[in-house]
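fold-stage: in
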Amino acid sequence: MGARTWIEDAWAQRLWIDHLVAGTAVGIHILVIRLTGSGDWLQWIGSSQRTDLYAAAAGVVSAIGGLSAIAISIYTAANGERLRAVRRQHQGQLRRSWRSLLQGTAWCCLLLLAALSLDREHDPLSARFLSEYALTFAVLRYPRLIWLFDRMMQVSDMDLAEPERAPAPVRDPNWVHRRQGTPP
């Protein structure tokens, strides 16, 4: 197994890392803002613009979540030999990954809607950081969705590219008699 495959497998199996990376990125951003007094890009725009941004982001995240549901439908409808083998061997991991991707979409929408409802003029509750976390988390999750969908499509495509095998011919011991028109 190559280094790239090992890295992909490790990344695919550790879904929790997206929460850690998103939290760390937002935490570092908050720390930079507190230490330097600059870099708070969401504070630079007015409250009405921020809430518009939250609503638009929730719509985009929801739309992409809908696309992941379509991907799951395609995956469950495909019926090739290789895809059935993948399902048998990795059903738990696949179910966990799909479920995590859909839950992540719902989590991002929930955080964006919370930021939408909590943000006020001058953002005294710092709700903008909820949206920043949600957007960072979504950005980390979408490559997982694309990667998983791509892998499943590769397996499905291999099944479709290979013509179906005709069943092996059955040997008929009486073929000579039938050909000659004599009883066996």
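fold-stage: in (second)
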Amino acid sequence: MPLTILVVDDDPGTRLSISDYLELSGYSVIVADDGQEALAKVQEYHPDLMVTDIVMPRMNGYELVRQVRQKSEFRLLPVILLTARTKTQERILGYQSGCDLYLPKPFELEELGAAIRNLLARSQIIQSAYRLSHLENTNTLDGNGSQLNDIQKSQWLLELTPREREVLELLTHGLSNADMGQKLHLSPRTVEKYVSSLLRKTGASNRAELVRFAIKHGLVE
């Protein structure tokens, strides 16, 4: 499932060019004309990242970011501020409001794309670390050591598709993509997609960590 980016700008041309570029890059894009509409869409769609202008009607970018940061579920939402304002004090205001990056106009779409990829990668690492930490803390409180309890294990398994569970099981036996593909009647490229999905869902950074996570938490037989 593609990551979702919210693009906020009252200029239709800027909004369209950014949206088209991001969609061609494989992202799902939602748009807003001003800060007030954007705040409502953040709450409705829970985007993975927000790109916003500063000077907009009804609610400017500074206030939008401040209000987003006041909500606990969006405190880690990556935010890029786009603006023609380049004075040092204005950049400071941007960072004080809670933005992650201040990108002055005019800018190259490729630069924006690189910034987005970097922020999304960092965000996913942070969220994965938080999720694993939360699971481990819960296990300790429940007295189960490193093993997930039955309810938590069921919740993890429900997040995995049947095919992902099959791939996870075969991974623990040390099979290659080609070997797994033969057993599951899939191409090695398709197997790799399932492995990537498992890495993302568990927060593991490589196959070895993924296997350790699955065995440690009893997700495989």
